[in-house]
Amino acid sequence: MAILEIKGLNFQFRKKPIFMDAQLMLTQPGVYGIVAPNGTGKSTMLNLIAGILRPQSGTIQIMGKTNTPATVFTYVSYAQSAEHFLSVMKGQDYLELFQKAHHISAERVGAVTTRLGVDAFRQERIRTYSMGMKQRLTLAIALMVDAPLLLLDEPLNGLDPDSLAVIRRTIIQEGKSQHTVLLASHNLDELARVTDQSFVLTDQQIQPVTFTNGIELEKLYRHYFSGLEDTGETV
Ligand SMILES: Nc1ncnc2c1ncn2[C@@H]1O[C@H](COP(=O)(O)OP(=O)(O)OP(=O)(O)O)[C@@H](O)[C@H]1O
């Protein structure tokens, strides 16, 4: 049974096609990247998988089931961009909300918040948080739910080296512990470090790409998106 299977996906915003007969099949747990320039459809793809958007046609199945709200609630944890938090709330409010909704033990919440260094600021209001603090909270919420499929939208944005190391380790660990992480990011070096496989969104399709390091991934990116000749130069 596939963890995630997308078949014949067609989606457009008004007249703008984002996916045309796109396919994707993930059968093994691990960390998978989604790469594409701004405005190509990475967030749209995650929103379609999470059932926030509905395709014009095609099917999306998670663990062999259509992505109804009940299926998504059971099998998916979606960390949307950190901008979605309400600034008047405290990190603690969000942690409690998800803890109650998913019946998560206090021990599990504590283990995740400690691992991600959220305990130091969880009692403060979100408006006082830096970008890195919001990213840590976002990931803590996504992880404590313990769903088999994690969708992460730009979890590596705006992080200092320490935060980046914590989040990088956490994502790699998830992939090794039988979870599947689908991660949209522009950070090609980081993607190369944490992913087992990546996909580019090109020509309204989801194409698998193989690479072994960030430089190769950057070359692939140029090949698909910049139309620039490869001069062999790296900066
Ligand atoms: N609600 C909407 N209504 C109309 N068009 C939209 C809507 N949301 C997104 N779009 C358009 O769909 C396209 C894909 O958007 P999406 O946010 O999925 O891109 P992205 O690859 O995640 O971009 P970024 O890297 O900037 O986050 C963009 O051209 C965007 O303008």
UniProtKB/TrEMBL annotation:
Start and end residues of each ABC transporter domain: 4-228
Listed InterPro entries: AAA+_ATPase, ABC_transporter-like_ATP-bd, ABC_Transporter_VariousFunc, P-loop_NTPase
Keywords of the record: ATP-binding, Nucleotide-binding, Transport
Coiled-coil intervals, chain numbering: none
Xref: Gene3D superfamilies: P-loop containing nucleotide triphosphate hydrolases
A Pfam family of this chain: ABC_tran
GO molecular function: ATP binding; ATP hydrolysis activity
Source superkingdom: Bacteria
Name of the protein: ABC transporter domain-containing protein
Protein species of origin: Schleiferilactobacillus shenzhenensis LY-73
Organism phylogeny: Bacteria, Bacillati, Bacillota, Bacilli, Lactobacillales
